[in-house]
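Quick review question:
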C-alpha cells in the first residue's frame, strides 16, 4: 500500500514519517529528488536526492517522475523507479508537498492520502522561526503558501493534527496499521485460512 503524507512546510510531516519508519516494520520511505540546498541535518539518499536544476530537468523530460512540482522556488519530484522498486514487497510512505499529493491523487487510485495539520497559524509560524533555517522573507512566503494549502484538507482521506507530537505519531501509526487490516488488502492472506475451514481441515 502507498501512504502519501503531506501538509504545509513546517507542519512536522518529515519528523512524523521518520518515526513511522523507525517503529513500523515492512514500510519503506520513498526518497524524493530536489534541487534545493541540503540542510545540515539531512543526508543524501536518506532524506532527499539532491540534484542540480539541469539534472532535474533532464529527468523530468525523460519522464522519470510520477509527479513533480516547484515549491518555494525549488524543484521536487517523486521518482517513478523509486516507487516501483521499493513498493514491490513492502508498504511505501511518501513525504511530499501538497501540490505533489494532489497530482498523485488523480493518478494513483489505490493509495492513502494523509494531511498533517498544524494546531494554528501562529504555531506554524513559531515552528518555522524556531527551525532557524530560513530568512524572514522565506518564512513569510511559506506562511502565505500554507494559507492556500490548508484549504485543500478536504481532499484527503485522513487528517492528523500535529499539536502534541507523540499523539500525532500514534494517530499516523493507527492509520497505517488499520489500513493493513482492510479486507481487500488481507484477501491473499486469508484465502488459505478460509479454504482450510471450507475444506474441513
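Suggested answer, residue by residue:
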Amino acid at each position: 500500500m502507498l501512504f502519501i503524507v503531506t501538509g504545509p512546510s513546517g507542519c512536522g510531516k518529515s519528523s512524523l514519517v521518520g518515526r513511522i519508519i523507525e517503529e513500523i516494520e515492512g514500510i519503506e520511505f520513498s526518497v524524493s529528488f530536489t534541487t534545493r540546498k541540503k540542510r545540515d541535518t539531512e543526508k543524501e539518499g536518506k532524506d532527499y536526492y539532491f540534484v542540480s536544476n539541469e539534472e532535474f530537468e533532464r529527468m523530468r523530460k525523460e519522464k522519470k517522475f510520477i509527479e513533480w512540482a516547484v515549491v518555494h522556488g525549488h524543484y521536487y519530484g517523486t521518482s517513478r523507479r523509486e516507487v516501483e522498486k521499493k513498493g514491490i514487497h513492502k508498504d511505501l510512505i511518501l513525504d511530499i508537498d501538497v501540490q505533489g499529493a494532489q497530482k498523485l491523487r488523480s493518478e494513483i487510485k489505490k493509495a492513502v492520502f494523509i494531511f498533517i495539520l498544524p494546531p494554528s497559524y501562529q504555531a506554524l509560524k513559531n515552528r518555522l522561526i524556531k527551525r532557524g533555517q530560513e530568512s524572514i522573507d522565506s518564512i513569510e512566503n511559506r506562511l502565505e503558501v500554507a494559507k492556500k494549502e490548508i484549504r485543500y484538507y478536504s481532499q484527503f482521506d485522513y487528517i492528523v493534527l500535529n499539536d502534541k507530537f507523540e499523539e500525532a505519531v500514534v494517530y499516523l501509526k493507527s492509520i497505517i496499521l488499520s489500513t493493513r487490516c482492510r479486507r481487500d488488502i488481507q484477501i491473499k492472506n486469508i484465502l488459505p485460512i478460509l479454504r482450510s475451514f471450507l475444506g474441513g481441515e
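Why it works: Residues 2-30+91-198 form a domain with the Rossmann fold fold (CATH 3.40.50.300). DSSP finds eight helices and nine strands in the chain.
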